[in-house]
Specification:
single chain; 244 residues; mainly beta; 2 domains; eight-stranded antiparallel beta barrel; 8% helix; 62% strand
């Protein structure tokens, strides 16, 4: 084979190998679109939150853009949209005062409570001053609150992108706007949020996948309201993704 032909063939071969080496793995996407749902049965003091017994449900959408691909990791930036976040809150529905065996008056307190327990308090009164004994009963209930928001600071790192089962870690930051003060009265309708966690992503095809993820979620107003108790939730997140 003439030398020029051999050199040309060698150049083509090296170019092909270089291009193949630079190509992303078949289980890596440059652009990803996702739908997800998040669920937490209750809140507790995990990070810096104080309010407990808050249940959270949040469907949403995600757009992710791959920033870097290597043999070992995929690094993605994402924007998460939560158009409807549902938060179930405990509160005292009604306080009833009973005097001499009969209900004297009732009133529905407006203040949301950090903890809510149905209870009855007895007061002895002062008979010599004409003040009879009475009891006050607090009835505990719950209600659903609505919020919507955006998490524009999402980062995600997938490991072993050449495998159809990939572990990953993720974190994001954003905000939620609610129809009334959350998580208690005189806090704020605008709250900041951040989450971080880890999970597994299973690719059912080269560009379609499902993922299960555990996250720690925090919500608070960063002291922009009169009260700032904060809420911490442990969240299970399920995601379906597709892209190219």
């Amino acid at each position: 084979m003439p030398v020029p032909h051999f050199a040309a063939l060698l150049l083509v071969l090296l170019s092909t190998l270089a291009a193949t080496a630079q190509e992303p793995s078949p289980y890596s996407r440059r652009n990803t679109f996702s739908v997800f749902t998040e669920y937490s049965n209750t809140s507790s003091r995990i990070l810096i939150g104080a309010d407990q017994n808050r249940r959270l449900i949040a469907p949403g959408f995600t757009y992710a853009r791959r920033l870097h691909h290597s043999r070992y990791t995929d690094w993605n930036y994402a924007i998460e949209v939560r158009p409807l976040t549902l938060i179930r809150e405990p509160y005292y529905r009604q306080a009833t005062t009973t005097v001499d065996g009969s209900n004297d008056w009732s009133t529905p307190p407006a203040q949301l409570q950090r903890g809510c327990v149905t209870r009855t308090i007895q007061y002895a009164g002062v008979p010599e001053l004409g003040k009879p004994a009475y009891t006050v009963t607090f009835e505990c209930s719950s209600r659903w609150s609505y919020a919507g928001g955006l998490s524009p600071l999402s980062q995600r790192l997938n490991f072993a992108p050449s495998h159809h089962l990939q572990p990953f870690i993720a974190a994001n930051g954003g905000f939620l706007v609610s129809t009334h003060d959350l998580p208690v009265a005189n806090s704020s309708r605008f709250n900041f949020t951040f989450e971080f966690g880890a999970g597994l992503e299973l690719f059912r095809a080269h560009h379609r996948s499902i993922a299960a993820e555990y996250r720690l979620h925090h919500l608070s107003n960063a002291f922009t309201g009169t009260y700032n108790p904060g809420v911490d939730n442990q969240i299970l997140k399920l995601t379906y993704s597709f892209g190219n």
